[in-house]
């Protein structure tokens, strides 16, 4: 068995071309573009030099996009990835730095290149750090 595994099910949304979920995401992207007063060509250029045709396919849910492309779209509209995916507006405006998003994408790629044992170890460390922070926050409250 290879150490390289397919991404978990949670990441598979980008590969579901033509599904209701992709169409809903495309509709939210279209709404953001129109609200920003951009044409498909302008939005495509602003989100990484993509053609209007590619942008249109994303809006219709007919073409999958890479994670980095999705993050570029989020940065273009200054919206959190979770907000664009869910359609729910966050209670406070958040500014997203494209460089931080790219670094996060790079970390995710590196994580998935690890073997299963090392990924499990990384998960345990992250869980322990989060638990420690959660406990520190409760003490401060």
The CATH superfamily title: lambda repressor-like DNA-binding domains
Q: What's the helical proportion of residues?
A: 55-70%
Based on Cα principal axes, name the global outline: elongated
Helical segment count: 7
Distance N to C terminus: 48 Å
What is the total number of structural domains? 1
CATH architecture: Orthogonal Bundle
Radius of gyration: 18 Å
**pLDDT < 50 runs, ≥5 residues:** 8-12
Average predicted local confidence, pLDDT: 79
Structure notes:
The chain is an all-alpha fold. It has one domain: lambda repressor-like DNA-binding domains (434 Repressor (Amino-terminal Domain)), CATH 1.10.260. It is 62% helix and 0% strand. The protein has helices at 20-35, 40-46, 52-59, 67-76, 81-86, 98-113, 116-140. Helix 2 packs across helix 3 (52-59) and helix 4 packs antiparallel against helix 6. The longest helix is centred in the C-terminal third of the chain and has 25 residues, at 116-140. It is elongated, with a radius of gyration of 18 Å. The termini are far apart. Mean pLDDT is 79; it is low at 8-12.
